[in-house]
Write a structure and sequence with these properties.
This protein has 13 helices and 19 strands.
């Protein structure tokens, strides 16, 4: 019994492994259960272009710094008035001479980033206008766009979209392509939700009715709890008078999970704070027992429970008559973090599955026609050797499909073009080898010696040509955008598969054919 060569074992293992990855795409469920992901142009989905309102990030930064300045002024016992944010600037008045000296020192020590826009001293009162340098403002806007991109990417990853395409366009725009999304409205809400979580104390000194008539006490604001009746679809709004000052924000969150209330069998979101957030939450609940604490998300109140006792441990829950999907999405956005600035949709397209089906059909048709032409040419021109090249070509396509499934890459319409190009490149290596073999046969060498010489002399040329193509494909993948990347992926896989099938598979078929059948002449 003849022993099986190591090369044959490698080829059989590669073919077997490739089939394991390819078969699930044809609805044959085998391990490792990985299918080829289809891009937006093939299976349909959502295309969004968002713009980050970076100016809001600057305003939020200025607002936060004005609050810090207010706290420092109070802690240093500096008398002041009219401290407020006006756009990208902070204005205030320092009321006495001693306070002015303390304020100047405070400004130098604690707020060196502030730029003095104007400074006017009148008797013992100082009126000053502060802002941030243009370079700092530009950096805040840049970081807002970058953070928004990462936050949206984290949300989409947890949402479970396969192979999304998320990237920046220009300074503040974000392109999002979500293949296979079945619920565009839910996806848009998940992506666009700012998710700014705040805990605010409800005012128990004044009535909401008076505030609604325009008599809003200083430091207070009106926020609404919005509820929808799922049967009648009617929306009700309940007003609350709450403190403008935020007692605690979601920046201290470490986790958010969906749980089911055992009493009412309704989903709610349980949240957990880090150590600092837990201490703040404990302090707030301890000093405000029997007061209501409003849980506010994007300026909408979800619930306003009464604080019955001090809450330690850093855990709380958000209720609000959620569906399971709503609670799940809320947990996602809380875990991913708040957007640094609001985003709004500039462009929205939904690609239907019929367009994807047409694209797949035409792409596969063009691949089939191109493949048949190549197969026919090789058989007619190189006869038996051409048939061997065609077998290697078929395996080449299987290897590309297995690579797409194994690496969970996305097959796009340009990717199909890359496969079609690979079909031509795959036989190009065989053409070089076959012409070398012909030359060796002409000088009188035996078939086995001619094959040996043909492969050894053509290998270096084939490697040079394919490696340079592979380098170009890698560069396209690294610096290209979505469609270009799809082309680069299949081209890269095709180059690697072509080298394997041309230099190893077809060589093994030649050797087995010549040695086992003891061929004395080679029809090539």
């Amino acid at each position: 019994m003849k022993s099986i060569s190591p090369r044959t074992i490698v080829i059989l293992l590669v073919i077997f492994g490739s089939l394991l990855y390819v078969l699930p795409s044809f609805h044959i469920d085998v391990w490792p259960h990985k299918k080829i992901n289809l891009g937006l142009d093939l299976q349909g989905g959502m295309h969004l272009v968002l713009e980050v309102e970076a100016e809001k990030a600057v305003e939020s930064t200025i607002e936060r710094m004005s609050n810090e300045l207010r706290r420092e002024l109070k802690s240093n016992q500096i008398k002041f008035s009219d401290l407020e944010r006006k756009g990208f600037q902070i204005s205030l008045q320092v009321l006495d001479e001693t306070g002015i000296e303390k304020f100047d020192k405070l400004l130098d020590d604690e707020f060196p980033e502030f730029r003095i826009v104007s400074r006017k001293k009148d008797a013992s009162m100082l009126t000053i206008l502060l802002d941030l340098p243009d370079s700092d403002v530009a950096e805040i806007k840049k970081k807002a766009a970058e953070q928004a991109l990462e936050t949206i990417r984290n949300r989409i990853d947890e949402f479970g979209v396969s192979e999304p395409d998320i990237r920046r366009q220009g300074e503040r725009r974000i392109l999002i392509q979500l293949p296979g999304v079945k619920d565009p409205r839910r996806a848009k809400e998940l992506i666009g939700k700012t998710a700014l979580l705040e805990f605010k104390l409800v005012d128990d000194q004044h009535t909401v009715d008076e505030a609604l008539k325009g008599k809003i006490p200083p430091g207070m604001e009106i926020l609404y709890q919005v509820a929808e009746n799922r049967q009648t679809r009617r929306v009700s709004k309940t007003p609350y008078l709450v403190e403008k000052r935020t007692a605690l924000t979601g920046e201290y969150l470490t986790d958010a999970r969906v749980n089911i209330d055992s009493q009412y069998n309704e989903p709610y979101v349980s949240i957990k704070f880090n150590k600092k957030g837990a201490r703040l939450f404990e302090r707030i609940t301890e000093s405000n027992v029997q007061r209501r604490l409003a849980i506010v998300l994007d300026q909408k109140i979800h619930s306003a429970p009464v604080i019955q006792e001090r809450i330690s441990g850093g855990e709380a829950r958000i209720t609000g008559s959620f569906t399971h999907d709503e609670a799940h999405d809320l947990a996602i956005v809380l875990r991913a973090g708040a957007l640094p600035a609001p985003v709004h949709i500039l462009e929205e397209r939904t690609v239907g599955p019929s367009l994807g089906s047409d694209s797949i059909r035409m792409g596969l048709l063009s691949m089939l026609i191109g493949g048949l032409f190549v197969i026919g040419f090789m058989v007619i021109y190189y006869k038996t050797a051409g048939l061997i090249a065609d077998i290697a070509l078929g395996l080449n396509i299987v290897l590309i499909a297995a690579g797409l499934a194994g690496f969970q890459a996305t097959l796009t319409l340009p990717g199909i073009a890359g496969i079609i190009l690979t079909i031509g490149m795959a036989v190009d290596a065989n053409v070089l080898i076959f012409e070398r073999i012909r030359e060796e046969l002409r000088v009188g060498k035996s078939p086995l010696a001619a094959v040996e010489a043909g492969y050894s002399k053509a290998t270096l040329t084939i490697l040079d040509a394919n490696v340079t193509t592979l380098i170009a494909a890698v560069v396209l993948f690294q610096f290209g955008t979505g469609p270009v990347k799809g082309f680069a992926v299949t081209l890269s896989l095709g180059v690697i598969a072509s080298l394997f099938t041309a230099l190893i598979v077809s060589r093994q078929i030649f050797d087995s054919f010549i040695i086992n059948r003891q061929v004395r002449s080679l029809n090539i």
